[in-house]
């Protein structure tokens, strides 16, 4: 109860002599300092709004315009062409005052006009995408001029969100072009009769319902910031009623060869600190805007807004993403108990050593879980509707609501896991696979899968994260995780005995145990949700494969795109595994546009299939080397072109998806759209790009290699493949499938990749 007493700023008692007021100066000081921190954040937000509101100009440019106008007037010239005189007529001041004020008004109006003109020019420049289709070393004069102008307009240091209003809107492709590209993508997968039937369905759709749906979609594109993103978030993620664990959430891993410290509490201290430092940079907009690698072209940063203090709350028909402006604590789970860990004191972020001290207090706490508390997190791992019903009925008031609020409003969630993980022991490969499964689903109740992301710190100091997918895509979380790993290892560091650096204020109040009153009905549902989640987790086969025979360096010497090389390799691996081809999903980003998220690259193309068939031609004793080389080059160029088209808004699947949503709103059926959207993605792939290579000195610290992350299979009879290209000589693969399908084995598919 000591914490409760410290939280009371004053007490009073009524006596015969009057009211005896007893002030707690320590508590009042805490309140004052917390208030100062809040006001500093408000002032910072206002300042940032002004700075990014006038970008690419600067607030100080207003003074330059005013001085220029006054100087011109002093020289007996009228730069306003009579406008200043007209403004003077409406000002009830002296002649001198009228002149000065009218000049200020005109200067301000001129300044605003110049800002709008500059922003319009910047938006026009960012709408130019021809550069992406030009070959390396063969840049056109138009693109050279464009780059020069873009550099000039972007010369002033931008804030994180400075480019947001200047990014172009995602264009709606012509329906004829989308259908043509779709038919081309399915040609290698269909027999002649099936392709003829699909072509007829597409033609009927285009000539009848398609144009009607397209008009509604163009109307939305004129009105909305992005015609895809809100529907994609709602219908693909939030309206799904199945478990988000495995099916939607994904994971990120620690360093492959290195664990910075074996002390669990110390690793938690540095990791939590690094994450909060990143949050501070996001709040202050001090992060550099992400850009297309090797260019000055900015990417949309909208996904950063809901990174922290965010939770997905369940509903009967659809879930809702809730975001809070700030949070001064994190939620911690250890041995079946939930804690609230305050990370600020008197407006000051605790030092890594102090957070380690607090985490160690949680690890040393001997108290047992309350009835029903230990496996409560299983509600977030099971089906969404039962969780919604339990939350509404039993967690909407009283002690349960207060404790649930502490978890949902926390900056993020931390699990202190009792297991040891990583590539270790006598079976490093098998332990690496178990490490992946642990991060993907854990014990199905020791993560809070609804949080925007959860950090896992293992007993041996290994770490990782599990991220909810609806609020952002993997590159946004990967950027956060890269910063966290680098800051932990290279900036914050550890003492020789593995502890965090810094001093400890031992008067810190203990972390607060969250209290629960879990009735038998909730415990029964927890048991039921856990059974659903456990069955799903037990069915997932994960295999992590660090490939180091060669990497990006050797591939680029062949003048081949590393991503295209890997994707064609995956087509070859699938063909060897299953004896055929399948619809293949590769995630591409559309963040060149405002509020852009992803688009699908259909990697299985006519060209890639031709190469694989030539290479695997069983009729030929030895494949024609020159012919295979030529076909491989064509397949690579085709894949690159598909990727570029997806990035620039000329993809297939998001357009067809939105047309389908419009048809549902209108209550009309489309046999073509219904069939297209029901096709299974048996090979779902994604590259996790390394975005901050400057944070990792791989030359001097080659062991500090990131393992990347992975996700569960999309189809029951398919594979989920994630890969990360690390440095010049390594590619890490994460392959998942389901044990229940006899035709898919994650380790076998990786064997085919390596061959």
TrEMBL record:
One of its GO terms (molecular function) is carnitine O-palmitoyltransferase activity. One of its GO terms (biological process) is long-chain fatty acid transport. Pathway: Lipid metabolism; fatty acid beta-oxidation. Coiled coil: none annotated. GO terms for cellular component: mitochondrial outer membrane. Its EC number is 2.3.1.21. It comes from Lates calcarifer. The active site is at 469 (proton acceptor). Keywords: Acyltransferase, Fatty acid metabolism, Lipid metabolism, Membrane, Mitochondrion, Transferase, Transmembrane, Transmembrane helix, Transport. It catalyses: (R)-carnitine + hexadecanoyl-CoA = O-hexadecanoyl-(R)-carnitine + CoA. PANTHER family: CARNITINE O-ACYLTRANSFERASE (PTHR22589), CARNITINE O-PALMITOYLTRANSFERASE (PTHR22589:SF105). Residues 1-47 form the Carnitine O-palmitoyltransferase N-terminal domain. InterPro entries: Carn_acyl_trans, CAT-like_dom_sf, Cho/carn_acyl_trans, Cho/carn_acyl_trans_2, CPT_N. It comes from the Eukaryota. It is found in: Mitochondrion outer membrane. Belongs to the carnitine/choline acetyltransferase family. PROSITE patterns: ACYLTRANSF_C_1, ACYLTRANSF_C_2. It is a multi-pass membrane protein. The chain crosses the membrane at residues 54-75. Its main location: mitochondrion. This is carnitine O-palmitoyltransferase. Residues 170-746 form the Choline/carnitine acyltransferase domain.
């Amino acid at each position: 109860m000591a914490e409760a007493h410290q939280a009371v700023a004053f007490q009073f008692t009524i006596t015969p002599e009057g009211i005896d007021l007893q002030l707690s100066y320590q508590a009042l000081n805490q309140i004052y300092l917390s208030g100062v921190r809040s006001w500093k954040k408000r002032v910072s937000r206002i300042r940032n709004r002004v700075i990014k509101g006038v970008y690419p100009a600067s607030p100080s440019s207003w003074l330059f315009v005013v001085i220029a106008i006054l100087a011109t007037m002093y020289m007996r010239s009228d730069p306003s062409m009579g406008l200043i005189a007209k403004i003077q007529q409406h000002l009830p001041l002296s002649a001198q005052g009228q002149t000065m004020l009218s000049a200020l008004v005109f200067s301000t109006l001129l300044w605003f006009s110049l800002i709008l003109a500059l922003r319009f020019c910047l938006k026009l420049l960012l709408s130019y995408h021809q550069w992406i289709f030009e070959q390396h070393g063969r840049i056109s004069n138009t693109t050279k001029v464009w780059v020069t102008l873009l550099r000039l307009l972007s010369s002033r240091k931008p804030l994180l969100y400075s480019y947001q209003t200047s990014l172009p809107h995602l264009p709606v492709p012509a329906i004829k072009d989308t259908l043509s590209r779709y038919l081309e993508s399915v040609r290698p997968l269909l027999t002649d009769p099936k392709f003829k039937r699909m072509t007829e369905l597409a033609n009927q759709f285009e000539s009848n319902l398609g144009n009607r749906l397209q008009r509604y979609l163009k109307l939305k594109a004129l009105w909305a910031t992005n015609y895809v993103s809100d529907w994609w978030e709602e219908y693909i993620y939030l309206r799904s009623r199945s478990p988000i664990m495995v099916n939607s959430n994904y994971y990120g891993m620690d360093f492959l060869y290195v664990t910075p410290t074996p002390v669990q509490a110390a690793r938690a201290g540095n990791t939590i600190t690094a994450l909060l430092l990143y949050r501070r940079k996001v709040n202050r907009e001090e992060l550099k805007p992400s850009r297309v690698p090797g260019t000055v072209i900015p990417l949309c940063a909208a996904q950063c807004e809901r990174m922290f203090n965010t939770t997905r709350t369940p509903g009967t028909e659809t879930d809702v993403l809730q975001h809070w402006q700030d949070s001064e604590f994190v939620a911690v789970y250890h041995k079946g108990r939930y804690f609230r860990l305050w990370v600020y004191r008197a407006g000051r972020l605790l030092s890594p050593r102090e957070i380690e001290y607090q985490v160690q207090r949680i690890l040393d706490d001997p108290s047992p879980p309350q009835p029903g508390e230990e496996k409560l997190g299983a509600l977030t791992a099971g089906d969404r509707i039962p969780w919604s019903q339990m939350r509404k009925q039993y967690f909407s008031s009283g002690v349960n609501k207060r404790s649930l609020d502490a978890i949902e409003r926390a900056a993020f969630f931390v699990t202190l896991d009792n297991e040891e993980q990583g590539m270790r022991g006598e079976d490093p490969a098998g332990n690496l696979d178990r490490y992946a499964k642990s991060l993907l689903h854990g014990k199905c109740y020791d993560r809070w899968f609804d949080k925007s992301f959860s950090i896992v710190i293992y007993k041996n100091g290994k770490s990782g994260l599990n991220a909810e997918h609806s609020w952002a895509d993997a590159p946004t979380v990967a950027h956060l995780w890269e910063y966290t790993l680098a800051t932990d290892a290279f900036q914050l560091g550890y003492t020789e005995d593995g502890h965090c650096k810094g001093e400890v204020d031992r008067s810190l109040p203990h972390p607060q145990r969250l209290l629960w009153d879990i009735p038998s009905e909730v415990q029964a549902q927890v048991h039921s949700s856990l059974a659903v989640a456990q069955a799903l987790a037990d069915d997932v086969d994960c295999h992590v494969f660090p490939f180091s025979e060669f990497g990006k360096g050797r591939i680029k010497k062949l003048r081949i795109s590393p991503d295209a090389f890997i994707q064609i390799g995956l087509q070859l691996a699938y063909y060897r595994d299953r004896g055929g081809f399948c619809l293949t999903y590769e995630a591409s980003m559309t963040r060149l546009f405002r509020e852009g998220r992803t688009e699908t690259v259909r990697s299985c193309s006519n060209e890639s299939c031709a190469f694989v068939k030539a290479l695997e031609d069983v009729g030929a004793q030895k494949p024609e080397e020159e012919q295979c080389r030529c076909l491989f080059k064509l397949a690579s160029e085709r894949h690159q072109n598909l990727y570029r088209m997806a990035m620039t808004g000329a993809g297939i699947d998001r357009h067809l998806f939105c047309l389908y949503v419009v048809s549902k709103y209108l209550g009309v059926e489309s046999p073509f759209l219904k069939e297209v959207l029901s096709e299974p993605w048996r090979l779902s792939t994604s590259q996790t790009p390394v975005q901050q290579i400057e944070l990792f000195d791989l030359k001097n610290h080659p062991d500090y290699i990131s393992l990347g992350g992975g996700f569960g299979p999309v189809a029951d009879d398919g594979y989920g493949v994630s890969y990360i290209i690390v440095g010049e000589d390594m590619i890490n693969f994460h392959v998942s499938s389901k044990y229940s399908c006899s035709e898919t084995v994650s380790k076998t598919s990786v064997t085919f990749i390596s061959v």
